[in-house]
């Protein structure tokens, strides 16, 4: 790990320092108790009964035999769900199947037993009579009128279109037009903790301990399904052993609530790895048809993008993923004409959900690959083309036309990589290839918005208490999903209050204690949650001033005076400012397109070796420059970047969740490959600092954007090494080999 | 419930043999049991006091323990048998090599077992032990199909004998990643290369391209006595492709395995 800073600004006391992660010691020693480790007295064990066909009709469900299994305490079916509905954006999913089966592994029943074995035996005793129907497994087929409808209203979940300028005219006049279709695969999150939790029902109150990135949504989903007041549902959502988008939605908390209510005992369900792999949400596969036109000077004149997104059986977050993909379809580039058409289709495949990057990696791969191909046809350097087209603050966003804000440092980020020795010395490195291993270097760039986007009501809250002895406790959200965001919140608070970092206690991930703050997602936890923490601290300081205390603050005195006046508890909400510089964008389009005010960017250089006999690709090094605003915790930025690059290597080279007619084929880690320690190349993070006026101490969110350039940088390097255009992910040995054979013939 | 028996001596093992399934490192068997394989009695052969040493050399043959961890065996070889060492280097992961045994890899009889091709290319033999004493079987006759061997339920593998070799030998694995991947195709070889570049004593074995690890006799015959010129290599890889019958599965298609087996041979000829 190496880190260098471009233009480090004047430091505050804690912000800007690599303060160790809170709880790091108990995480690395394995002492931390995760929610799936929890046990409560008198606790039962739950098992989910699932379908083994991707499409069909559940005709009969025989549960009597299961109820007679020794140790089985409860068996629940759709009839036991008061309001059998689920879905964060579109409520189109049953909690338990009551008719149509739309996905392999759809839940049909829940069993609670005194032991795991009893619950499993009960689950195995349930008989299902199913009328099997042909799976709708190709999203293009799904959109045809002849396809069976998976939902009322057909299989087109959402179509999103927008055009700026006149793309057809621009492409007609372009010096080169790259016209190609790209495919991306289904990707599984593979969290270390597969998932699980405990539910309890006591005195009319539900408590659900289950890792989720979006505790407020779990709370409202449980309340809706059980037809109870959300106030009666408490979600405790941390600590969580990784999520990356996977633990943000779905019926799991409802299952716990239903079983706890039915049995009047605490119930734990721990999902198996195979269960999560087979049934859990996945990164959406995209089919993207791109037409990119450039003039003779390498300036992009127009881009036409047509994307078909396999949403799977239920809407989940697919509409939002499509919207974020549209905004990122033009990448970090400026161009006068751009068009996007995206259609999300229902199928019987894996359910598409949130996954780090949220549709943006699927856009960057086609665009970056097309720019590389255009560069070759123009006989220009790909990095130089990027430089000529990179967005600058004040430019209009290429698709939406709103004005790019002052903190965007795409050009500096690109230059940091262009100046990197791995890019500069690529020709010499390539010449030193030996044996069957050809060498190549690639570069790729990306942008992603921070937060939900304009007109989405992006809001985070913080509650702060000063006690009589002056000590500070902060309850804030979003919670953490493995990154221990409490660390950064405490750094922000320590500087805002000018108190030692260790004196700030931060609590996250509990709907009863933390004000509703939305999701730990959308690269917003620090940007939004840190903003709320800062606002709470500023409010406390102003109250301290109001009770007559001046610097240096006597914190004991402050605690006493504020306590006496009933002012010791601060509760604030921080609202993300929407885009104000609309530029060319029509105001009516803001609530439809949700443009971001703040963007981060990342640029990667990748060096790879490709075996000319087998098509194997080994990544030798990836350097990532990241435009993160102020790095509140530089080691945290590096950690996010390195982890993202590994997920990006998986996306680029090996991760491939396969289904045959809707039936998952890769449900274990033997057949679904992710990078191991042996696949980690030399990694480098270059922090390109700036300052975002709407972020806490100038911070922006970066945890997603750093993943986006990895795959296109690697495929560009493969092209440099052996001359093939990788048009689908992953670039497995077989894919690369076939492309090389294609070149020969 | 599974009962685990842990004999301390070979005599105890001979007495117990046949009353349960033999388990060594368990790196395949335990995984299979988690997926539903039913075993009620296991006999652990990793704590036998008078088990053979990890590796000893006698009269041109390296005798490798089939019951010791692959890590121990390779450490003991100390640079000898580079084909075996190369296979061990890419066998699963360090943690698995610290438990898994050569005997277990042979008895599990996967066509993709990475320790098998170098043993077949070396024309190694296995020593099968059991209540009625020891017998010696060529490794390529030990395995009869995927998961099938000539071992009786009361027999186990105690040694493999690998002829020492002065020429070139090696092993290449093509997997989906650099560690912890089941081979898509693997290739092991032994040959002598004269000062003029002619190959003699050519032995080639391939993994994951047929129901068992296979020798490429036709390709061997084409290379024998020849310099590996472009034409000779082409003829050898063409022949090799007629000697294998790979299947397509979730890891790779049959066509790719068929084609890339020749690629591995080209790589072996170019790099060793």
Task: Provide a descriptive summary of the structure in words.
The complex is a heterodimer of chains A (745) and B (272). Chain A is 28% helix and 25% strand. Chain A is α+β, with helices and mostly antiparallel strands. In chain A, a hairpin with a 5-residue loop joins strand 18 (459-466) and strand 19. In chain A, helix 6 packs across helix 7 (252-263), helix 9 (318-328) packs parallel to helix 10 (360-378) and helix 10 (360-378) packs parallel to helix 20. The longest helix of chain A has 22 residues, at 525-546. Chain A starts with a strand and ends with a helix. Chain B is an alpha+beta fold and 272 residues long. Chain B has helices at residues 10-16, 29-34, 70-77, 82-89, 94-97, 102-108, 116-121, 139-142, 217-223, 230-242, 254-271, and strands at 3-5, 21-23, 41-44, 55-58, 61-65, 125-129, 135-138, 143-145, 148-149, 156-163, 168-174, 185-193, 199-207, 214-215. Chain B has a 5-stranded antiparallel sheet. The radius of gyration of chain B is 19 Å and the shape is globular. The termini of chain B are far apart. The model of chain B has no long low-confidence stretch (mean pLDDT 96).
Radius of gyration of chain B: 19 Å
Which CATH first-tier class of the largest domain in chain B would you pick? Alpha Beta
The radius of gyration over CA of chain A amounts to 26 Å
Q: What are the low-pLDDT stretches of chain B, counting only 5+ consecutive residues below 50?
A: none
Tell me the count of domains of chain A.
Answer: 3
Strand order of the largest sheet of chain A: 4-6-2-13-10-11-12
Structural class of chain B: alpha+beta
Alpha-carbon distance between the two ends of chain B: 50 Å
Q: Domains counted in the coordinates of chain B: how many?
A: 2
Question: What global shape of chain A is seen?
Answer: globular
Residue-averaged pLDDT of chain A: 96
Determine the N-to-C terminus distance of chain A.
43 Å
Which strand order do you get reading across the main beta sheet of chain B?
Answer: 4-5-10-6-7
Q: Give the helix proportion of chain A (percent range).
A: 25-40%
Strand tally of chain A is 26
The CATH architecture classification of the largest domain in chain B is 2-Layer Sandwich
Strand content of chain B: 25-35%
Helix count of chain A? Answer: 21
CATH topology of the largest domain in chain B: Uridine Diphospho-n-acetylenolpyruvylglucosamine Reductase, domain 3
């Amino acid at each position: 790990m190496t880190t260098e800073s471009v233009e480090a600004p004047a430091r505050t006391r804690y912000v800007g320092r690599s303060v160790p992660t809170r709880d790091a010691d108990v995480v690395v020693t394995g002492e931390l108790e995760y929610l799936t480790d929890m046990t409560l007295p008198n606790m039962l064990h739950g098992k989910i009964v699932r379908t083994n066909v991707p499409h069909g009709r559940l005709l009969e469900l025989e549960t009597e035999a299961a109820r007679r299994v020794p140790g089985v305490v409860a068996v629940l079916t759709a009839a036991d769900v008061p309001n059998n509905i689920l879905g964060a954006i579109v409520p189109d999913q049953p909690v338990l199947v009551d008719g149509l089966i739309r996905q392999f592994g759809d839940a049909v029943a829940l069993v609670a037993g005194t032991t795991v074995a009893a619950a499993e035996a009960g689950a195995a005793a349930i008989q299902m009579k199913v009328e099997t129907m042909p799976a709708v497994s190709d999203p293009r087929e799904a959109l045809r009128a002849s396809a069976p409808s998976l939902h009322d209203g057909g299989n087109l979940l959402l179509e999103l279109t927008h055009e700026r300028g006149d793309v057809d005219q621009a492409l007609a006049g372009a010096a080169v037009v790259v016209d190609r279709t790209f495919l991306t695969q289904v990707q599984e999150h593979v969290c270390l903790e597969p998932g699980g939790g405990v539910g309890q029902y006591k005195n009319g109150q539900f408590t659900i301990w289950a890792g989720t990135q979006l505790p407020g949504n779990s709370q409202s989903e449980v309340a809706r399904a059980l037809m109870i007041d959300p106030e009666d549902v408490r979600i405790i959502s941390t600590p969580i052993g990784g999520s990356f988008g996977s633990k943000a939605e779905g019926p799991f908390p409802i299952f716990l609530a239903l079983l706890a209510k039915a049995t009047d005992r605490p119930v734990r369900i721990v999902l198996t790895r195979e269960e999560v792999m087979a049934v859990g949400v996945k990164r959406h596969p995209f089919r993207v048809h791109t037409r990119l036109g450039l003039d003779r000077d390498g300036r992009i004149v127009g881009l036409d993008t047509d994307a078909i997104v396999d949403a799977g059986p239920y809407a989940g977050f697919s509409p939002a993923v499509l919207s974020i993909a549209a905004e990122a379809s033009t990448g970090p580039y400026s161009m006068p004409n751009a068009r996007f058409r995206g259609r999300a289709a229902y199928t019987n495949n894996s359910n598409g959900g949130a996954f780090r990057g949220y549709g943006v990696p699927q856009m960057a791969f086609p665009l970056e690959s097309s720019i590389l191909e255009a560069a070759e046809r123009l006989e220009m350097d790909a990095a130089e083309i990027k430089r000529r087209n990179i967005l600058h603050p004040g430019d209009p966003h290429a698709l939406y036309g709103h004005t790019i804000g002052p903190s965007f440092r795409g050009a500096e980020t690109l230059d940091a990589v262009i100046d990197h020795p791995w890019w500069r010395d690529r020709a010499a490195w390539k010449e030193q290839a030996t044996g069957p291993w050809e060498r190549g270097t690639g570069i790729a760039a990306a942008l992603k918005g921070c937060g939900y986007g304009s007109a989405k009501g992006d809001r985070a809250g913080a509650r702060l208490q000063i006690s009589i002895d002056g000590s500070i406790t902060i309850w804030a959200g979003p919670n953490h999903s493995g990154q221990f965001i409490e660390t950064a919140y405490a750094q922000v608070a320590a500087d805002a209050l000018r108190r030692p970092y260790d004196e700030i206690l931060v609590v996250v991930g509990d709907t009863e204690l933390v004000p509703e703050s939305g999701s730990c997602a959308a690269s917003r936890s620090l940007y939004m949650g840190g903003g709320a923490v800062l606002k709470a601290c500023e409010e406390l300081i102003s109250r301290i001033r109001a009770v007559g205390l001046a610097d240096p603050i006597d914190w004991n005195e402050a605690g006493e005076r504020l306590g006496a006046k009933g002012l010791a508890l601060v509760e604030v909400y921080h609202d993300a400012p929407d885009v104000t510089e609309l530029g060319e964008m029509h105001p009516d389009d803001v609530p439809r397109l949700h443009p971001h005010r703040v963007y981060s960017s990342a640029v990667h250089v990748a060096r790879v070796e490709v075996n000319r006999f087998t098509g194997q690709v080994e990544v030798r090094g990836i350097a990532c420059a990241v435009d993160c605003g102020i790095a509140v915790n530089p080691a945290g930025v590096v950690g996010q970047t390195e982890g993202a690059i590994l997920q990006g290597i998986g996306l680029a080279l090996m991760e491939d969740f396969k289904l045959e007619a809707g039936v998952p084929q890769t449900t274990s880690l033997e057949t679904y490959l992710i990078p191991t320690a042996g696949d980690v190349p030399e990694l480098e993070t270059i922090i390109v600092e700036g300052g975002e006026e709407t972020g806490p101490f100038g911070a922006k969110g970066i945890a997603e954007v750093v993943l986006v350039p990895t795959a296109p940088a690697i495929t560009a390097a493969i092209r440099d090494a052996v001359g093939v255009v990788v048009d689908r992910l992953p670039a497995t040995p077989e894919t690369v080999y076939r492309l090389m054979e294609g070149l020969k013939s | 419930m599974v009962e685990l028996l842990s004999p301390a001596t070979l005599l105890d093992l001979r007495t117990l043999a046949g009353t349960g399934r033999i388990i060594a490192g368990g790196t395949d068997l335990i995984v299979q049991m988690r997926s539903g394989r039913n075993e009620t009695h296991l006999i652990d052969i990793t704590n036998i006091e008078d088990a053979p040493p990890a590796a000893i050399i006698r009269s041109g043959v390296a005798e490798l323990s089939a019951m010791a961890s692959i890590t121990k065996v390779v450490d003991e070889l100390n640079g000898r048998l580079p084909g075996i060492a190369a296979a061990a280097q890419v066998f699963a992961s360090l943690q698995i090599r610290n438990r898994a045994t050569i005997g277990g890899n042979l008895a599990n009889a996967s066509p993709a077992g990475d320790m098998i091709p170098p043993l077949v290319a070396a024309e190694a033999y296995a020593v099968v032990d059991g209540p009625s004493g020891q017998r010696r079987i060529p490794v390529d006759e030990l395995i009869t199909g995927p998961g099938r061997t000539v071992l009786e339920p009361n027999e186990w593998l105690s040694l493999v004998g690998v002829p020492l070799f002065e020429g070139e030998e090696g092993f290449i694995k093509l997997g989906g990643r650099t560690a912890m991947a089941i081979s898509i195709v693997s290739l092991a070889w032994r040959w002598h290369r004269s000062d003029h570049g002619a190959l003699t004593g050519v032995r080639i074995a391939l993994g994951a391209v047929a129901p068992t690890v296979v020798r490429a006799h036709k390709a061997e015959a084409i290379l024998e006595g020849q310099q590996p010129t472009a034409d000779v290599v082409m003829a050898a890889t063409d022949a090799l492709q007629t000697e294998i019958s790979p299947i397509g599965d979730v890891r790779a298609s049959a066509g790719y395995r068929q084609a890339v087996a020749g690629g591995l041979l080209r790589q072996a000829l170019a790099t060793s």
